[in-house]
Design a protein that fits this description.
heterotrimer; A mainly alpha; B mainly beta; C mainly alpha; B: mainly beta; 2 domains; C: mainly alpha
């Protein structure tokens, strides 16, 4: 069954068509949800919500855009609506005027010693670092750098200004850079310790 | 003699008239009141599509949606459908030739406090009270009054007006010529745009809130108190900007080059915890003290 | 340019589009150069992540989903349509006979408004705009002529359809179309006279969008026979 055929049959309520569409896209939707919320159980709930909404609205899909694009946006909306309903102060995307927030934010070591990341990090390191980001930074980073949304789209999705979106992305990247540099230092330290242990044997 | 034996025509006529009146009152009239009950779980989603007529939505503590309607001409068909936690109510005309002006269908809907609403209507008044949940309203000329609602509220209207009393959550409203009033709101996000409608915001700005109000013509009026804390950018291309507040220069260093066109200013009140953007093409912007 | 200024530029711009002063700073500053390179590495790796294989969700997600779809009646026998749509078309709908065409040019209208809005938003405070203000004004006005050609005739047709249904709605839509048309005319005049007036352009794009939405409302009411 092709996707177009599955969509047509799903619009008529065909069970196997629904399953076909689910199998085709569930992995990607789940990956998006997981990267946005960082919790597998919650990501599964959100995946289910996204597909439920999709199948409820599938009759209105007229093929104006790619089906996967439509599903993608719907999934992002589901995640963001869920996050909006939570009262998590750290998910606020507003520019903070509280000096303490600035202190706890990414340090700006301009001119400080830098470890170049290119060629030294892999995706596993990056995935772990993304998981450690504060939720607000993580959402914008995943939407922009991983999923490819533009700032004006993120601003609309997350109900913030374009300036805020850019600022959060910048802070996310700075924080990721710090986390990844710490990872590299840890690796280097472990390698030195291992080499020393090897020499003493 | 009684009426059976000696029939006085006047008395009989009166009796017949009384009995006829009682019979008429007893038979279902066109302005028939119908109701339907729907058992629901938490946070049901209620969708109502109507053409013209009054819509009242209230809340109660039961896990039930009650839909009551009356139709003056009796020519409107109201269809209801429930699928799980979703209740849909649709009005359609039995006879396509009948003008909708005459086919007013009035609704009274009672929903659990935590409910999602989706209302689409052309004309008539819509009132919603004490409902918490996301809501969308799509009208042509219906006037909306929302009181004590809390949620993400999206309003699209052509020339219907919107009055929000003590609303909280987020509000997005788009109107061509309808007015928008927000009275004593606790909204942390406001995006209101009209073409020729007036906009009034009379309430406090919440910390980290964003308030964007924009029109082409008409008046944008914002009332503030001395202890409010907000950054403001107010600009009218061809109209006036009237300001009663003592703002200090914007303290957040956000580069905002002052426009060389029209009248306006940017500034900060107290610590600038909220962000307010007021913009008009040819209308007047008024920032007035409530104190 | 100082390092702090460079960082502000990096925050505002996508790092592929740095202006010349920032590029010049990169050549002389090792720290900022390393920052820029690291951001590039993070961005490249993140972009590739979207295509990464990742374990699918547990099977219970599909089972729960399927149960919910059945409970809501969305899964039915293949022969039975999910939504029964009235098949009879009202006679007046012949005035607006091609919904696919209507959808297509409404899409054109919205795309035009969206594109013009994007052109307006893509200006930055530092990078030079690709179009000079006069050129941008020209693009605005030529887009408007496309808009007018495609849309104005439709508006009258769609209103005629609505007229049969509800005079109050028709009158409201007509009146408000006139309001928006007046705004478009005023804004166009301003943009012509002051091509570098960004605010006037933004309002013009906003007016186009409002008109498109108003026409969409009119067509929506028209095509569905009021609110069926």
């Amino acid at each position: 069954m092709t996707e177009a055929e599955a969509i047509r049959l799903a619009q008529q309520g065909d069970a196997s068509a629904f399953e076909h569409i689910y199998r085709l896209h569930s992995r990607r939707v789940y990956a998006l949800c997981l990267r946005m919320v960082g919790n597998p159980a919650e990501a599964e709930d959100l995946t289910q919500d996204a597909f439920l909404q999709l199948f409820r609205k599938i009759a209105t899909f007229r093929g104006e855009s790619a089906f996967s694009t439509w599903l993608h946006r719907l999934s992002v909306n589901v995640v963001l609506m869920k996050l909006r309903k939570k009262t998590l102060p750290e998910t606020s995307l507003e520019e903070s005027t509280d000096p303490e927030d600035e202190v706890n934010g990414p340090r700006r070591e301009i001119g400080g010693p830098d470890l170049l990341l290119t060629g030294s990090i892999d995706r596993v390191h990056l995935e772990r670092a993304i998981e450690q980001l504060p939720p607000g930074y993580r959402q914008v980073f995943v939407l922009h750098d991983v999923q490819g949304f533009e700032h004006n789209e993120i601003a609309k999705l997350m109900d913030c200004s374009i300036g805020n979106s850019k600022s959060q992305l910048h802070k996310a990247r700075m924080r990721l850079r710090e986390l990844l540099q710490e990872t590299l230092r840890d690796i280097a330290r472990q390698e030195r310790a291992a080499a020393k242990a090897g020499d003493s044997d | 003699m009684n009426a059976f034996g000696n029939r006085n025509p006047v008395r009989v006529g009166a009796l017949v008239a009384i009995l006829a009146g009682l019979a008429l009152a007893a038979t279902p009239a066109f302005a028939d009141r119908m109701e339907k009950h729907f058992s629901v779980q938490d946070k049901p989603k209620v969708t109502l599509r109507n053409s013209t007529g009054r819509i009242q939505v209230k809340s109660w503590s039961k896990n039930e949606v009650l839909v009551v309607w009356t139709n003056a001409s009796g020519k409107a068909i109201v269809e209801t459908e429930q699928a799980g936690n979703r209740v849909e109510v649709d009005t359609r005309m039995a006879d396509d030739g009948v003008s909708s002006d005459q086919d007013k269908t009035d609704f009274e809907i009672t929903v659990p406090v935590e409910s999602e609403l989706n209302v689409r209507t052309d004309s008539g008044n819509v009132t919603v009270e004490s409902v918490h949940g996301d809501m969308t309203f799509d009208t042509v000329g219906a006037n909306l009054q929302l009181t004590d609602v809390n949620g993400y509220v999206v309003v699209k209207t052509i020339d219907g007006s919107l009055v929000c009393n003590r609303c909280s959550g987020k509000l997005e409203a788009n109107s061509i010529s309808g007015n928008v009033q927000m009275i004593q709101p606790s909204l942390d996000s406001v995006r209101v745009q009209t073409s020729s409608g007036n906009i009034l915001f009379d309430g406090s700005f919440m910390s980290r809130g964003i308030y964007i109000m924009k029109n082409f013509s008409g008046t944008i009026e914002v009332h503030f108190s001395a202890n409010d804390s907000f950054d403001v950018s107010a600009h009218s291309l061809k109209g006036d900007v009237i300001n009663q507040a003592s703002f200090k220069p914007d303290t957040h260093g956000t580069p905002r080059p002052a426009s060389k066109w029209g009248h306006g200013f940017i500034g900060t009140m107290n610590d600038g915890h909220a962000k307010v953007e007021l913009s008009s093409f040819s209308g007047t912007i008024k920032i007035l003290s409530r104190d | 340019m100082q390092c702090e200024q460079f960082e502000q530029v990096l925050e505002q711009q996508e790092f592929e589009e740095l202006p010349k002063p920032a590029l010049a700073h990169l050549e002389t500053c090792e720290a900022c150069s390393a920052l820029f390179a690291d951001f590039g590495a993070i961005h490249s790796m993140a972009s590739a992540m979207a295509a990464d294989p990742i374990a699918p969700p547990s099977e219970h997600v599909w089972i729960s989903l399927r149960n919910q779809l059945e409970a809501e009646g969305l899964i039915r026998d293949p022969q039975v349509p999910v939504h029964s749509v009235p098949q009879t078309s009202p006679v007046w709908w012949s005035v607006f006979q091609r919904p696919a065409m209507a959808g297509a040019f409404l899409g054109l209208v919205l795309a035009t408004a969206g594109t013009l809005s994007y052109l307006s938003n893509s200006q930055s405070t530092i990078a030079q705009s690709e179009l000079t203000p006069v050129q941008e004004a020209s693009s605005v006005l030529s887009a408007n002529s496309v808009f007018k050609e495609e849309v104005l005739n439709v508006s009258d047709d769609s209103i005629l359809g609505v007229q049969r249904q509800d005079t109050a709605v028709t009158d409201s839509i007509r009146r408000n179309l006139q309001i928006v048309d007046n705004f478009i005319a005023v804004c166009e005049k301003d943009v012509r006279e002051q091509p570098d007036n960004q605010m006037a352009r933004e309002y013009l794009y906003g007016a186009y969008q409002q008109k498109a939405e108003l026409l969409a409302t009119a067509m929506n009411r028209n095509m569905t026979g009021g609110l069926q």
